[in-house]
Backbone:
């Protein structure tokens, strides 16, 4: 994995602390909204550009859905990444305001998404990401950060939409029962991730409830069995 990806890895894993109430960040906000023919509704998202953004430079992109600790905190996440990590690459953060819980449509019990959730993934792939690539200079490193429900949803993307992102940073994904939600690596997924470098970082809280910690350990065990271009991190801090 290239050094630049390793650096941005360290950077995005630090956003656990972004909800500290800083007040002055000099982030540049660009609001987007468009009528999606796929979902038949308006999709809104914010793009947070780093301080001193240069349209001739390329930046990694980081996506978050509007849920939980990440809801309405895109500015704070972007600020922490771009203003307080001066020795690491700056990044463009995309805060999908329409990516709320109903549109994610994820089920803890099955580990799958419902018909609304499947429909919402399509504009992400065919509308939002292509728009970002067209309007802003971004590198090939595209990460997704999720917390709790959104982190579990990201596991669905990792298993069922390989290649949509090549970096995942997941804080406290939930586990309800022993096999809920399921996390399995099919032979097709093994072949894909054995040939495509991917970052996967999972972090239950240090004093989290046991089922979440065991879930993280189970995922780590399954991923580290690969031949592997997956760079797996697990943290309990």
Residues:
């Amino acid at each position: 994995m290239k050094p630049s990806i390793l650096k941005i890895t360290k950077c995005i894993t630090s956003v656990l602390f972004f909800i500290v109430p800083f007040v002055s960040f000099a982030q540049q906000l660009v609001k987007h909204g468009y009528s999606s023919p796929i979902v038949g509704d308006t999709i809104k998202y914010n793009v947070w550009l780093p301080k001193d953004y240069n349209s001739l430079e390329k930046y990694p992109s980081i996506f978050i859905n509007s849920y939980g600790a990440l809801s309405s905190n895109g500015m704070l996440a972007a600020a922490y990444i771009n203003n307080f990590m001066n020795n690491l690459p700056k990044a463009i953060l995309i805060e999908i305001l329409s990516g709320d819980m109903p549109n994610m449509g994820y089920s803890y019990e099955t580990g799958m998404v419902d018909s609304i959730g499947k429909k919402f993934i399509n504009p992400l792939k065919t509308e939002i990401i292509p728009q970002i690539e067209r309007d802003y200079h971004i590198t090939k490193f595209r990460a997704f950060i999720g917390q709790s429900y959104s982190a579990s949803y990201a596991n669905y993307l990792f298993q069922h939409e390989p290649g949509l992102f090549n970096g995942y940073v997941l804080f406290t994904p939930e586990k309800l029962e022993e096999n809920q939600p399921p996390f399995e690596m099919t032979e097709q997924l093994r072949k894909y991730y054995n040939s495509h470098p991917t970052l996967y970082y999972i972090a239950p809280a240090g004093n989290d409830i046991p089922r979440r910690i065991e879930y993280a350990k189970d995922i780590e065990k399954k991923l580290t069995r690969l031949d592997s271009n997956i760079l797996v991190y697990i943290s309990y801090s």
User: Anything to note?
Assistant: The two ends are 25 Å apart (CA to CA). The CA atoms of residues 41 and 143 lie 25 Å apart. The first strand starts at residue 28 and ends at 36. The chain has seven helices and eight strands.
